[in-house]
Amino acid sequence: MIGPRTKLGLILLMSPLLLWLTTLIIIPHLDMLYVSLREKVGVRQYEFGFGNYMTFFTEPLYWNTFARTAYMSIMATVLTLFIGFPISYYIAKIAKGRLKMALFLLCLVPFWVSELVRTFGWMILLRETGVISSFLQWSGIVNQPVEMLYNDAAIMVGLVYTSMLFMVVPLVTTLDSLDDSLIEAGYDLGASGFAILKNIVIPHAVPGIVTGSIVVFMLSLGNYLTPILLGGKSSLWFTGMIYSQFITRFNWEQGAAFGFLLLGLSSLIVFVGLKLSGQTLAKTMG
Amino acid sequence: MNENIPDLETVSVNKSFGDFRAVKDVSFSVPKGSFFSILGPSGCGKTTLLRMVAGFLEPSNGDILIKGRSVVNEPPNKRPVNMVFQHLALFPMMNIYENIAFGLKRRGESESVIKQKVGEVLERVGLPGVETRQADQLSGGQKQRIAIARCMVLDPDVLLLDEPLGALDLKLREHMKVELKKLQSEFNTTFIYITHDQSEALVMSDQVAVMNEGIFEQVGSSRELYYNPKTAFVAGFVGESNAWSGTVEQVKKDSVKIRTSSGFTLMAQTKGEDIKKGQKVKAFVRPESVRLALKAKEISSMENRVKGVVGNVLFNGANSRVLVQNPIDGAEIDVAIPQTGEFASLAKGQTIHIGWQHDQARCFADKSGAK
């Protein structure tokens, strides 16, 4: 039996969390949902309806932008995974002692400066008058300035760079928990390095891979700064659409609807991804 | 194939980690089909030696031969040896069938052959029909057998076992000792077993090597090690012993008189070892070699006699012991209680006489000398 005192203690312990969730997450979202379901019929005249949501599906620009954003985010997630996995494996299994700490810190260091500064760093490197362009001209490989900013590749570079830590941390944690003797047993039983990776290391690392991928995907999808700054006018990122609805066009109703669509569709993509890879959220988090 | 080629042979194998020499010039050979144990305290280099045989470590110098062929330059996945790991290392992401089939699949065997072989090996270890279970659904002893089956299905020349019984509880460990020995004779494969538990080594092995500080102190059958230890370390490590360190006071033909620093004197035999007067030595007496007597005259013929007080009676069924306090140095002497009923009423504080012949006490030069 839970006594009244225990119950009071539980309520007191839970209250900061509940307060946080209610005031900062639940109330704004409910309000946003309410706003998104208002259709503007005239000056200061609103009607209840799904018109704002319908706009997304009837206007090709919007859902094309969303599809592009989702596709680019999935690509960024896959790329981050492919680059992050060997790094994590090295940190977790090969590096020892101080080297391990140092490498882990090196992954963390870029996150001590703000995302804005980091993105400007990439701009300094990639722009027409930037470091790489100047170097190529100086070395004679090209004879005129090259613009490397404002294309999809630049966005991809920025997204992967920004997300790397969020892939490396869960991967290092799960790979760390892989008993070395399992790898040795694999070798002992005659497996090649690739067979061990495929049959032992990756199956063990699945929870880390799924967690990292979900985080990176969500961060990329919801990223605003990197695509806008590195992609310039051609970026066409869904968060940019939401921003312009709210700020430029002052159409909060439309912006709110887009916000909810982003939430719903990204959750759907994660769900489908989990189903396709045969994972469940409970298994990954547990 | 020549029957005389040993399954495993090492030729002055050395391994150093920086300045630390973990394994020093170890040479031994293991004949085909035998159960060979390496017994030693933790940190003696036995795991290092085993890992060199498995291929996870490279010897600093020396050679390792399996069936007469040097394997030093072969990676672990190419060597004809398999290893049962300390914590077994069954793959948790696979079921029992996949665990056992793992090595066969790597060899590219066909699915039907794998299926048949897995079934056979499970039959042999006495666990038929567990193919679809997960490793964590099995008991400790069953996991053990699966780990052995996973190696034996590959038909290795040598099976290495790295203290696989360490994690089991006492009862199961006793049971698995017998089981392992049975499995070994059934598969008729050479087992190299490392352990710090002397009873595991003595019960199961055809040959035991006692290892200490990177060297083999003695290699022999369990009986030889127990009754005829060659060094002080072996005498102290294998089996229970009462030990004294002291200085040689008098040397006779094959016995010496030793005086400890606290003034206790005893006679011990040297068994051919060259021991001089004034030399520092260690003497060992097994608890079962000491005679207990209620009256002094019963043991008057013995060269070493102590009239002591019963300190504690350690009752353990047939292996009961009594700790007799030696009035000269205050130390307790461990004595086995004969199961004749004569001493059934032994109680703390009682005066008792104990004695042993000089040939029951073994004396060795004290190598730690200066310490």
In short:
The complex is a heterodimer of chains A (286) and B (371). With 286 residues, chain A is mainly alpha-helical. Chain A has 13 helices and 2 strands; from the N terminus they run H-E-E-H-H-H-H-H-H-H-H-H-H-H-H.
Question: What order do the helices and strands come in, and which of them pair?
Answer:
The complex is a heterodimer of chains A (about 290) and B (about 375).
Chain A: H1 4-36, E1 38-42, E2 45-48, H2 51-58, H3 60-94, H4 97-108, H5 115-126, H6 131-138, H7 152-176, H8 180-188, H9 193-221, H10 225-231, H11 238-248, H12 252-276, H13 281-285
Antiparallel strand pairs in A: 1-2
Helix pairs in contact in A: 1-12, 2-3, 2-12, 3-7, 3-9, 5-10, 7-9, 7-10, 8-9, 9-12, 11-12
Chain B: E1 8-17, E2 20-30, E3 35-39, H1 46-54, E4 61-66, E5 69-70, E6 81-84, H2 96-106, H3 111-124, H4 140-152, E7 158-162, H5 170-187, E8 190-195, H6 198-204, E9 207-212, E10 215-220, H7 222-227, H8 232-237, E11 242-251, E12 255-260, E13 265-269, E14 280-285, E15 291-293, E16 304-314, E17 321-325, E18 332-336, E19 351-356, E20 361-365
Parallel strand pairs in B: 3-8, 3-9, 6-7, 7-8
Antiparallel strand pairs in B: 1-2, 1-4, 4-5, 9-10, 11-12, 11-14, 12-13, 14-20, 15-19, 16-17, 16-19, 17-18
